[in-house]
Structures are given as structure tokens and as C-alpha cells.
């Protein structure tokens, strides 16, 4: 992970940071994230619906700026034991372990919510995402120009719950301290 980088859960009030991150993605990264070309308006509409109570977004922040994100969205509402994961990392931060760290945090969160199957879809030419999925023992199936990776999540344990709580607490405290330091710099 790059120095100064922090991964933490995002809050509903930070939807604008998620939107701005997705809008900063270059054409290739945007196509990989959404499985095709999408307009700025499409991204704005997507973010308006993605920051709901059942979706968890982890962000990779550098100096308070969101540079990568992993979205965990339950399939068929909150009752199911299946979810999908989607990752996006701005070009400058790719190849530094950010995607691995985001997916690892997403898998922990899925595990602690009783999600047993995590689906990750990508384009057939998205080798980087396929390698990342394989790193976490995903089974890949190829069809219609795309690839679907499926990961079976382990059952939650007291240790996995504590790991998530500690990560969340650290992320929250760091975010508060960052916000305070930015306020002091302005005044």
C-alpha cells in the first residue's frame, strides 16, 4: 500500500467523494469498472442509488482524497446470502496493492454479514481483476465476453468481527483527525 494511504468504510454523507472518484477514472478504468463506457450523468445517477443502507463502500484515501473504492452490494435485498463486489482504483494508484487491500476488507465485511458467495463480474480483457480474483481463490467462469468470479466467504468468527471493529474504529479516528488537521490548516 502506498505511504499515507488509508482504507476505511465510507459514510452516506460522503457520496460526493465516491461520485468525484468515479468521474476521475480514465476511460479505460471507467470501462473496466462498469463493463462498458458510461457517461458522467450515468455515474452521477449510479452514485445516487449506490450509497444506500444495504451497500457498503470501502474507500482508499490519500490526504483526504478518495483514490479507490470497493463496493459490496447484497443481491436481492438484504435477506440473501449473496452479494456482488465492484472495485475501482484511479490509474496512478493501480499496481500498488490497493485493489488487494480493498478486496480483502470487502471479503471481511461480507464474511461478518453472513454473505457466503461474493460475485465479481469483469470484462474478459480485464486481466488485472481476474488476477485479483484468483488471488482470493475465486472460481472464474467465462461467457459472452465477460468473466464472473465467485468467492465463497468463510463464516464469521469472534476474531473476524473484532478485526472489522478495530479497522472501523481506526478508520473513523483517522478520518476525524484528518478533518481536524485540514480545518486548522485553513484557519
Automatic annotation (TrEMBL):
One of its GO terms (molecular function) is acyltransferase activity, transferring groups other than amino-acyl groups. PROSITE patterns: GNAT (PS51186). InterPro entries: Acyl_CoA_acyltransferase (IPR016181), GNAT_dom (IPR000182). Residues 5-166 form the N-acetyltransferase domain. SUPFAM superfamilies: Acyl-CoA N-acyltransferases (Nat) (SSF55729). This is N-acetyltransferase domain-containing protein. It comes from Pseudorhodoplanes sinuspersici. The lineage of its organism: Bacteria, Pseudomonadati, Pseudomonadota, Alphaproteobacteria, Hyphomicrobiales.
